[in-house]
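Notes from the pairing session

We agreed to fold both candidates in a single pass and log them together. This is the raw record for the first candidate, unedited. Please don't reformat it; downstream parsing expects exactly this layout.

Candidate A
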Amino acid sequence: MGVKWLDEPEEHDYDAAADYLSMLAEAAVVTSTVDALKNAKPVQRKAKDILRAARLVLLPESNSHVRNDLAKISDGKRLSPILLVRGQYALSVRMEVADGYHRVCASYLTDENTPIPCRLVSWQDAGATGSVPGAESRDLLR
């Protein structure tokens, strides 16, 4: 059975994205980025490519959240689209899965080539420093 998706992310997904992103960036940047996600046009990306771009490991079926999403897939329930924030290749900053990591993993375990509906935006500067969250840690590793 294939993965079915909702047309739009659920409102609580944006709240979860903001909570996660708040650990990476200042409040104004997070607010602007989440607002951009809300207004972004849907795109489709494959589960395997999302995991690679975000440099994330595939969570196993034994993970409780992945298991719950796999059960939803099996029951024919629709999953919420994924919220992504683009990294910067020139700075070796990875893409962030702002919300939906477990759904990506469940989709991958179903079929790694499953097209996943996403909202994909770049970090929004909000008039701050113009830096990309995560770039500082990359510079420290040099």
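Candidate B (folded immediately after A)
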Amino acid sequence: MTGREILHKMKEKVGLSSSADSGKGKSKMSRNITHGFHLQPNFWTEPENAMRKAYRITDTKILEKAGDLGRGGSTAVTAILINCQKLVVANVGDSRVVMCKNGVAKQLSVDHEPSTEREDIENRGGFVSTFPGDVPRVDGQLAVARAFGDKNLKEHLSSEPDVAMEMIDDDTDCIILASDGLWKVMSNQEAVDTIKNIKDARSAAKRLTEEALNRRSSDDISCVVVKFQ
């Protein structure tokens, strides 16, 4: 099989066949600036379904590579801004998206905790432990009810994301995407207050991670900040 044929097969697997949405363009102001894009066929008309499909594909690929990557897993959070107006967010686990409008924090994602999804976990044949001094865990191991990977728990664990849409307007200050290393030591409002006077998005993300470390966060800290000027 040639390299071209292999690439075509890979595109078909992830929904990027010839029927996918493609395009290119050139700036009228400068012939040196061009752009291109290539999307799943239903992204513009059904962005929620496209997002769910992308999450399913990602989980499948991680499970297929468990022999190389190990049996662990990961939470995830995603935000896509369409035409600078429509924000589509998705997540599995306790990674979180928080929006700030007029200085007020609003959580857009859902924290998938074993205690709130106990019935679904038990219906899959699993259980939720609630030992004193510890957080609820799926099968006594995982502290989130949904995640990518975790092959040994996958029968009892969901990787289906919660997806939501929010409109961006002139009152929107920023959005924060971060893993639980930030949120375990900082409330949503504290996070947006921490960066409200920082105009540069990169500096804002750095400030949040530094503050989480100052508060002795012991979990992984990943943070992305998008500022709307």
